[in-house]
Design goal:
The complex is a heterotrimer of chains A (about 270), B (about 325) and C (about 325). Chain A is of the alpha/beta class and about 270 residues long. In chain A, about 40% of the residues lie in helices and about 25% in strands. Chain A has a six-stranded mixed beta sheet with strand order 6-7-8-3-9-10, with helices on both faces. Chain A has a four-stranded antiparallel beta sheet with strand order 2-1-4-5, covered by helices on one side. In chain A, α2 crosses α3 and α3 crosses α4. The relative contact order of chain A is 0.17. Chain B has two domains: about 110 residues, no CATH class; about 200 residues, MetI-like (MetI-like fold). Chain B starts with a helix and ends in an 8-residue tail after the last helix. Helices cover about 80% and strands about 0% of the residues of chain B. Chain B is an all-alpha fold. Chain C has about 325 residues and is mainly α. The longest helix of chain C has about 40 residues. Chain C starts with a helix and ends with a helix. Classes of the chains: A alpha/beta (about 270), B mainly alpha (about 325), C mainly alpha (about 325). Chains in contact: A-B, B-C. Bound molecules: adenosine-5'-triphosphate and magnesium ion (MG). The site of magnesium ion has 3 residues of chain A, from α1.
């Protein structure tokens, strides 16, 4: 894998929120084309911040982020599309219009928009509520639309910010598998931020563990499991072993994160 | 009393009015009232209420709350017309010059059909429509742009708007009439100013209070600057824009009435002119007729705009 | 308090443009078609204004008695309007290609405030402001309780809302002839019009605000055994307050619109009358002076009256 090209590269990335919150401190990370990478870490360690910088939504003070060799600095692009935790469907568009929206942004002709959009609506299973507005469907259904609109866009890298954390057990598993299949079949790159150790291990090829405040990379763990991950049982011994390993690395960080969170809650 | 009986009673008020109008002799101080038009209108109201009574209530084809609201409103209107007819038209209270009976008032829709119903109404509606729509066309795009750039808003728009927006547009009427070659243009200009400020103020408010998360989502889906305006900012600000359109219409209408009153003439009529012209001649029956006509125009206008609004805003969760 | 470079530039420019105006006025020769303009009043008013700005700047920035953002906004506004007066003075007063009849120079316009001090600046202002406040006050004490009563239950709301929406759109100016005929004096008639104009937005917003109060809170309070009065005071009024205040602001703006409209059409005193009278006899310097004075009063009452009361009220609401 290491001989394939680097698609997203962060070097010494530092982000300080005003007045003096060090969200990221000299973070360096390379993501290769076709990889599935998870970032995991305690709350407030800067996972979302990293993802937002990569998406082009946030500025940074030092270091550099390159996407396919081009600098990313507050410039958004559908090639780096995001699946959000809070989903963010545009409330004035139906499910179908939300999916067509990105395709129209690409400037595709009308029938092409329809062909691609309908294909992905069928694959993800949005078909039977496609004419509903976001406030008329459930959270799970919303996130299915949120995923379908990104998949249809055919981005080079899919950035996911805890896309499953607000979903019910069933939909969460369903979307995890859909994402895996999408990644496998279409040869995509995925950067997946999560809180959930099992999820990170089960989905990805590399798990990046971060430490809290200032956000730093603590360790990167390679997961040596087959690429057709949906065929692996979730309670497979190897999966559990990896999960234990990641969890032990994280446990002290998690504790520190909790304390930080408590302190900031007041 | 059962609901069906109550609604039947309300509906029959309008029939009762017609019957009383024929049975009771006219008041001595207002003899020989022409009854045709008023009775015709009451009959129309009757049919309207009857429709909701039979189709809505007895056949249960309309929601009960809707029928109830219609019946409440019918009761209010029915009582007003009933009292007006009986006290003024039949018993002859109050002085007849200033307080005409409904028969006299509504008769002018027939007698003064050409000037009042056709020429004045058309002219007013035309002016209102043009001035209002030009204001919309300018105010909404400008508002979207100003709302999007905080510097433009804070440094230029806000200081100007804070002082200029609340200035009553009417005080510009004399000046506009002086500066524009034709009165019609001056009137349009004033309506434009009147409607412009409320619309732009609310558009900007809508854009500035729109949650950034939607803008971010659109940007990571590769939205272009142009489509950001048409597909995100505009629909997102639309609920607030509608509040502005409402105030804008009220203001435009006030301004129009005054501007017409000052600048209008027989050759350039309008409902505002009609009212103020006949005020000078003390023909109060015509004034009341014109006021009701204006109310009618408003009903039609707001009815149409409500239809458009509920279609455009059907994505909003209804407040129940 | 530290200012960024651009903020410092704005603050300085906003201050210095005013003495610069006086300098220009004194040094540049008057336009050939309007020689010997009386400059004293314009210069003195600008001088006084400069001193006010200067003391505000000292008070705000050096003594840190005002939030920085507000000081900058004020200086920003001063700059924008300084540029406006600069253009007016130079283009009209000094270059003077425009016709003298419809485009008076600022020097002649400001001179009116002094030469016509009794009629314009004192008496007309006094009459107009009294009328505006009388009508507005009546609208407050009827519109808010009325809105609360009609907004309390769904049934009343559903009846009041459509009726209010239609009636609110009928321009109150058309009632003026009626009001003049019925009320003992024209002043009363104008107060009535101001009242009608201010009433509807206040009423409608109160209606909406009260109707849309989260029902869960009310039910919760009822379960806890709160009386109707307590529910009103502790839940309904505080949560409807922002909407009510927004309506009161629109009402105030409309009050001034109708005040000037009524005075222009019907009165024999007041700023609107002054404006219209001098339009008819063609003194546009006096017309412009009246426009400026009206704008000033509207701005004054909204900024130093309404905004301050609103801030107080919202703070007080938060405390209870
Ligand atoms: N807009 C902002 N302004 C100031 N501080 C911020 C802002 N956004 C995030 N932060 C801070 O930066 C740190 C990193 O935040 P970030 O949202 O990236 O954390 P996270 O790892 O995604 O946390 P979580 O797991 O809870 O989503 C946090 O301490 C947060 O308080
Ligand atoms: Mg996060």
């Amino acid at each position: 894998m290491n001989n394939s090209k680097v698609i997203l590269k962060a070097t010494n990335l530092t982000k300080v929120y005003p007045p003096d919150i060090w969200a990221l401190d000299r973070v360096s990370l390379e993501i290769y084309d076709g990889e599935f990478v998870s970032i995991i870490g305690p709350s407030g360690c800067g996972k979302t911040t990293f993802l937002r910088i990569a998406a082009g939504l946030e500025d940074y003070q030092e270091g550099e982020v390159l996407f396919n060799g081009e600098k990313v600095f507050k410039n958004c692009d559908w090639r780096r599309s995001v699946i959000y935790q809070d989903i963010r469907l545009l409330p004035w568009m139906t499910a179908q219009e939300n999916i067509y929206f990105g395709l129209e942004n690409k400037g595709l002709p009308k029938d092409e928009v329809r062909r691609v959009g309908d294909k992905w609506m069928k694959i993800i299973g949005v078909d039977n509520f496609k004419d509903k507005y976001p406030h008329e469907i459930s959270e799970g259904q919303k996130q299915m639309v949120g995923m379908a609109r990104v998949c249809a866009l055919d981005p080079d890298i899919v950035l996911c910010d805890e896309p499953t954390s607000s979903l019910d057990w069933h939909t969460r598993r369903y979307l995890q598998v859909e994402l895996l299949k999408y990644w496998y079949n279409e040869n995509k790159t995925v950067l997946f931020v999560t809180h959930d150790v099992e999820e990170a291990v089960y989905l990805s090829q590399r798990v990046v563990c971060m430490s809290a405040r200032p956000g730093k990379i603590k360790e990167i763990i390679d997961i040596d499991l087959p690429k057709e991950r949906w065929e692996v049982a979730r309670d497979d011994l190897k999966v559990l072993e990896y999960a234990n390993k990641v969890a032990s690395i994280l446990s002290e960080e998690l504790k520190r994160g909790k304390e930080l969170e408590l302190k900031e809650g007041h | 009393m059962s609901r069906g009986l109550k609604y039947t009673a309300i509906t029959s008020i309008f029939l009762l009015i017609i019957i009383l109008n024929y049975l009771i002799p006219d008041a001595a101080n207002r003899p020989n009232q022409p009854k045709l038009v008023f009775n015709g209108m009451m009959f129309t109201f009757f049919l309207f209420a009857l429709f909701f009574l039979v189709y809505g209530h007895f056949m249960k084809r309309q929601s009960p709350t809707r029928v109830r609201t219609i019946m409440d409103i019918s009761l209010i209107f029915g009582s007003i017309f009933f009292l007006w007819l009986v006290t003024i038209g039949k018993l002859g209270f109050l002085d007849p010059l200033r307080w005409p009976s409904p028969n006299q008032v509504f008769y002018y829709y027939l007698a003064d059909f050409d000037l009042l119903v056709v020429k004045s109404t058309l002219a007013t509606v035309k002016r209102l429509a043009i001035g209002y729509f030009v204001a919309i066309i300018f105010a909404i795009p400008l508002g979207l742009i100003v709302g999007r750039y905080p510097n433009l808003h804070d440094r230029l728009y806000y200081p100007v708007a804070k002082v200029v927006a609340p200035i009553p547009p009417i005080i510009l009427v004399p000046y506009a009439i002086e500066l524009f070659p034709k009165i019609d243009q001056a009137v349009l200009f004033i309506i434009f100013i009147g409607a412009f400020w409320p619309i732009i103020v609310n558009t900007i408010y809508g854009v500035r209070t729109l949650d950034v998360k939607y803008i971010e989502a659109a940007r990571t889906l590769g939205v272009s600057e142009k489509r950001l305006y048409t597909k995100v900012l505009f629909p997102g600000a639309l609920p607030s824009i509608y509040a502005g359109l409402f105030i804008g219409l009220v203001l435009a209408f006030i301004v129009l009435a005054v501007a017409e009153g000052i600048g209008g003439s027989h050759s350039e009529p309008g409902l505002g002119w009609y009212v103020l012209y006949y005020a000078d001649l003390f023909e109060y029956d015509k004034i009341v007729a014109a006021i009701f006509l204006i109310a009618f125009v408003v009903v039609v206008w707001t009815g149409i705009s409500d239809r458009i609004q509920s279609r455009l805003l059907k994505w909003q969760r209804r407040v129940e | 308090m530290r200012l960024t470079k651009s903020e410092a530039v704005i603050a300085l420019a906003g201050l210095l443009i005013w003495p610069f105006l006086i300098l220009l006025n004194v040094t540049l020769p008057d336009a050939a078609n309007r020689p010997n303009q009386p400059k004293e009043v314009f210069n003195s008013i600008i001088m006084i204004f400069t001193l006010i700005l200067l003391s505000y700047l000292v008070f705000g920035i050096l003594l840190k008695k005002q939030p920085k953002a507000r000081v900058i906004t004020v200086m920003n506004a001063a700059l924008v309007f300084g540029v406006f007066f600069f253009l007016w003075l130079v283009v009209v007063g000094k270059i003077g290609k425009l016709n003298t009849h419809s485009f008076p120079s600022p020097n002649t316009v400001f001179d009116v405030f002094y030469s016509d001090f009794y009629f314009l600046t004192y008496k007309s202002s006094r009459d107009s402001i009294f009328r505006a406040f009388a009508g507005y006050f009546l609208a407050l004490i009827t519109g808010i309780p009325g809105g609360i009563w009609f907004g309390r239950t769904m049934r009343r709301f559903e009846v009041a809302y459509p009726l209010a929406k239609v009636t609110a759109h009928v321009p109150p100016v058309v009632y003026l002839p009626y009001a003049i005929a019925v009320f003992p004096s024209i002043s009363h008639a104008i107060i009535f019009m101001v009242y009608i104009g201010a009433f509807w937005p206040i009423f409608i917003n109160t209606l909406f605000g009260v109707y849309n109060v989260d029902r869960r809170y009310i039910e919760f309070a009822k379960i806890l055994g709160a009386s109707e009065k307590r529910i009103l005071r502790r839940i309904i009024i505080p949560s409807a307050m922002p909407t009510i205040l927004a309506g009161c602001l629109i009402g105030l703006v409309l009050a001034f619109v109708l005040l000037t409209a009524g005075e222009m059409v019907g009165a024999h005193t007041g700023l609107g009358f002054y404006l219209m009278y001098h339009t008819d006899i063609g003194y546009f310097d006096k017309v412009v002076a009246a426009i400026l004075l009206i704008s000033f009063w509207v701005f004054f009452w909204i900024t130093f009256g309404f905004d301050m009361v609103q801030a107080r009220l919202l703070r007080w609401m938060r405390r209870i």
